[in-house]
Amino acid sequence: MRQSPRPCAIEPSLSVLDFPDVPRGLRTFSCRPFMKIDSRFDPFLRGSAFDNELGFPTSQQRGNPGVLPDRISHLVELCRGKRVLHLGCCDHPPLVHDKLKNGTWLHARLTEVSQVCLGVDIDSGAVEFVKRETGFENVLLADLAVTAPEPVRTDPPWDLLVAGEIVEHLDSPVDFLSRLNQNLLNHCREIVVSVPNAFSLQNFLGARRHLECINSDHRYWFTPYTLAKVLTRSGFRPTNFDFVSHGRIQAGGIRSWLRVQMLRRYPSLRPTLVMNAVWP
Fold it and tell me: Which secondary-structure segment (H or E) carries 45?
């Protein structure tokens, strides 16, 4: 059963709605750089509407074609000047010292730019290690999917909950995110989730060689629509998304140069998908 007209995921100045009879491959868009999820997708995300060929635009060229945003810089800017809860803050303890030295330990970067940052982790050994070895005391041992302890239940609420590189490791993402939604209701305003992008250039290159290159602990790849669906099923309202690189690409001749140009021109080929959602 086909729904028509089809909505556009990005708030456009010209959209698919303006050209209903033009074949998909010939439609052009002139979109604002901000990738905002249109509210006309809400019925599909909630499950009250259905389309087995729903057109969900994934990206348009960002404002500056020379910019290739990386995951850490993107999250840092989202958290700048805000009250931040950082879920899974301790990372992998054996890597923390090196990441501190090269500026890629996310918790340190978020602590530096936010108004207030509280890290939360379920690994008691990792929390103890971070406090002992790094001097960062703004870490808390807690499982927010079970309960929100007193330090988390603040007034005013937290501006942003950062859940980076977590959901793909879980057996039941909707169950986990639903419990976060319930336990942090009235204690947090917005969540940002980063996950591996199913459309990544690495996946396409691997497919040409009949290979899948994947972290062996991952359960899922995500697309913008499937992540928005998971967040909606968990009680959130997804608002916007971006694609970013996972780190800075090292210079290495023509192949590296071509890779950077591809990722600049086609954002949906970047390896990481970042999506924001709010408590309704």
Answer: helix 42-46
In 38-121, the DSSP E strands lie at 83-87, 116-121
pTM reported for the whole predicted model: 0.86
Whole-angstrom distance, CA of residue 133 vs CA of residue 155:
31
Q: Are strands 237-244 and 190-196 parallel, antiparallel or unpaired?
A: unpaired
Instruction: Give the pLDDT confidence of 14-24 residue by residue, as tens digits.
Output: 233 332 333 33
Q: Which of 7-11, 16-20, 34-38, 164-168 has the highest mean pLDDT?
A: 164-168
- At 182-198, the pLDDT tens digits run 999 999 999 999 999 99
Spell out the residues 6+ positions from residue 272 whose beta carbon is closer than 8 angstroms to its own.
71, 194, 195, 196, 197, 243, 244, 245, 246
Where would I find the H helices in 135-172?
none
